[in-house]
Amino acid sequence: MSAGNKDGIVLNQDRSVEAQLQRAKEERQKKLKKQKRRKWFFIGGAAAIVLLIVIVSVILSTISKNMPMTVFTTNPTRGDLESVINASGTIESGQVVNYYAPGNILVEENAQLGDKINAGDSIIVFNAEDYEFALREVELEDKITNNTYQSNLTDYNETKAKLAQAIADVEKYAELVIVQQVVVDDLTKKVTDANAINIATLESKIYQEQKELAKYTSKVENAEALGLSDEEIAKCLKAIQEKEQKISGWNYEISQISGGVNAYYQQKELTDNQTVLAEYKAELAEAQAKVESYQAALGNKYDAENIVLNGELSTMRTGETYENMLECKDGVEAEFDGVITACNIEAGTKTTAGTVMVTLASLEDVKVSFSITKSGLKEVELGQKAIVEILDKEYNATVTRINSIATAGTNGSASILVEVSIDNPDNDIYLGLDAKVKLTTAAKTDVVMLPVESVSADKEGEFVYLVVDGIVEKRYITLGISSDEYVEVVEGLEETDQVISMVSAELEEGMPVMAMPEMNMEDMEMMMEGM
Predict the structure, then answer these.
(1) Model's pTM, two decimal places?
(2) With 70 as the cut, is the pLDDT of residue 286 above it?
């Protein structure tokens, strides 16, 4: 059944043969009812004749149960046929532009919602003094942003240079520490080894003399027991004195080794080089600390890059705002012919930077959107011609878009959005109005066709009931294109075949029937005129 609404729901919801036949039957019945209302006199007479026939049939059936059922028949005819998709939708603009506020500026005049605008017309007029003030604000912000960016960039480059110098210092002092450590180690070993040899030699001599001293001391202490003479005792005492003097002298030498002139200068040289080593290590530690500090200040490579990018982005944005302000010096002008579909400002109020002030929709680029089912998708293609009816006026249109994404309807079935653009829009078109779309998907001339209500379908295909020698015969046929009233018969029928036009539930193949040709309006009128 045909259906349509202002949301653009397709009239022919299902393109299957069964559904088409059912729709066509209902549409044809509606049209017949309209024709009957227009021709009430003739229809009333014809209805009376039909009623009389039915009454007679009932009476005869009552008289004899074997009386065949009466059926109405029609013959296939030839003619031209068009397959059409009928849909409805809402008129929309194919070109819509939003005009944004470049700053906070006082509005003096502005177009109103629904106003028709010509290209070049003034849409918004700003207060001149307030505009200059806002322009100066943006100009200063632009300079401040640029200066901040340059300052950040300078700091970044300076920190980067300091980091490079600190890394170089780390390498320099690390190498100096290594070299100086070798010098200090060599001097330490040299001083230590010379003193040790001298002291060891003297201590060896002392040890030998102490052994001799002990021997002479023992002789003196045991002189009586040993029977030593006074002369021998005197010799021993003299030897003891000599030994003690030697030992004392050598101990003095040992005490003077570290305090000697050579030792002093050797130790001073070692100390001086140890001081240099300590200074190098301090410089290395300071350079390493600077590297860590500068690296932390610069961040990772992405942070470092963002310093530049954010600066450039901020500068670009403020620059763009400034350019937009300059473009609005004389207010805002329409880019094309159209109508104001949204207005968010009023004269005497200030705009808010970045918000939409007004929306302009073109009246030269107009379209109607509607939906089709997946079965109807194969019949629609870009470039197809259509007829759009708006307020009882027809316009030529062209299919310009077929959406690649299906949407689910309220009944769960998927549908595809199709757009047709009106080829010749005029001043009688108003955005937002409902429009009817007639899309011819196929057309043939001089084809064999039947009223759609004559055709039925089952799981094996489409078929009709014929009356052949008074007997009902079921015959499968091949169909082609169809309209709301007729369907093309490609194969299976001849123009002389009697096709039962109104099928009832009691009708069965093989049953005897009485065929009665169906009368059209012209036949009814002729019959009534003859009466």
Answers:
(1) 0.53
(2) yes
